[in-house]
Amino acid sequence: MPRAARKVGNTNMNIFILTGAGISAESGLGTFRDRDGLWARFDPMKLATPEAFQRDPDEVHAFYNFRRRNLIEAVPNAAHLALARLEIRLAEKGGALFLCTQNVDDLHERAGSHRVTHMHGELRKARCTNCAAVAVWDRDMGRSDICPACGASKCLRPHIVWFGEIPLYMEEIDEQLGHADLFVSIGTSGSVYPAAGFVAEARRMRIRTCELNLDPSDNAHLFDETCYGPASKTVPKWTEAILEKL
Ligand code: OAD
Predict the structure, then answer these.
(1) For the chain, what is the domain count?
(2) Residue 229 dihedral angles phi and psi, to the nearest 5°
(3) Active-site annotation, residues
(4) Which of 160, 188, 214 lies at the terminal end of a domain, its last residue?
(5) What percent of the chain has pLDDT over 90?
(6) Per-residue pLDDT band at 3 (split at 50, 70, 90)
(7) C-alpha closest to that of 41 among 49, 50, 33
(8) Which of 44, 125, 184, 208 is deepest in the core (most CB within 10 A)?
């Protein structure tokens, strides 16, 4: 029997949620692969690889500066807020929510989620290629900026996992997936690994799986349950249904 079937209705349910760009779409932040998405307008090979940064740091900084400015103006939507509520209510019942996001925005945190694992990094942070320190960074970033930790110049980069780099926190993510009773994927196309492989891994461990997305993702056939529509509608409805069963 899938594990969630035993846990729903009891306390101490562990839910692993993976979010992608779709959850922030209604907050005005673009997705990547939709028809008008970021990767339809910008070439990721020129903007989101270590080689691109080495070749043309100014162009890469300009792209992330533009996205950082948009992010600072954006506000969380009903989907982010619903997940923050779910985290609190699950904890009250002795359960836990592990929120793993591919998003580099901080809308989950601003909605009130306490524990957010950013596997692709964070746009409002800078990383030093000299001393590896990570610092909060809310203004434009450029080659003339100095690392606040070691004082080195010309060594700050956006704290973003680029194509060809290894996502962050993978050990913790694997461990948390192993403890889950339910795996839920929200607003992701399921086309970027390793995140796209989590659903197959969850199935292998006989964890129940659920997809909430605008349209069926590349992995839609791997989910036990699916629900399609804008995240601001589907996510609050789904979280209410889960809470009623607790
Ligand atoms: P994608 O742009 O690949 O997919 C976004 C998904 O969200 C699609 O399946 C859309 O159907 C869905 N969607 C759009 N609007 C929605 C809405 N209002 N409600 C619910 N779903 C909606 O974005 P990701 O899957 O997040 O990596 O992309 C994964 C990674 O690829 C990103 O983290 C980024 C990118 O390259 C890096 O930059 C390292």
Answers:
(1) 2
(2) 155, 175
(3) 120
(4) 160
(5) 93
(6) low
(7) 33
(8) 184
Residues with CB under 6 A from ligand 1: 20-22, 25-26, 31-34, 37, 48, 102, 120, 161, 187-189, 191-192, 213-215, 217, 230-231
Q: Does residue 6 surpass a pLDDT of 70?
A: no
Domain of 54, CATH number, reads 3.30.1600.10
188 in the same domain as 236: yes
User: Structure tokens of 76?
Assistant: 């969380």
The predicted-structure confidence for 119-133, as pLDDT tens digits, reads as follows 999 999 999 999 999
Residues 114 and 49 in one domain: no
Dump pLDDT digits (tens) for 88-117: 999 999 999 999 999 999 999 999 999 999
- 81 and 174 housed in the same domain: yes
Range of the domain at 65: 30-73+121-160
Which residue, among 88, 74, 86, 89, has the nearest Cα to 21 in the 3D structure? 74
Residue type, 237: K
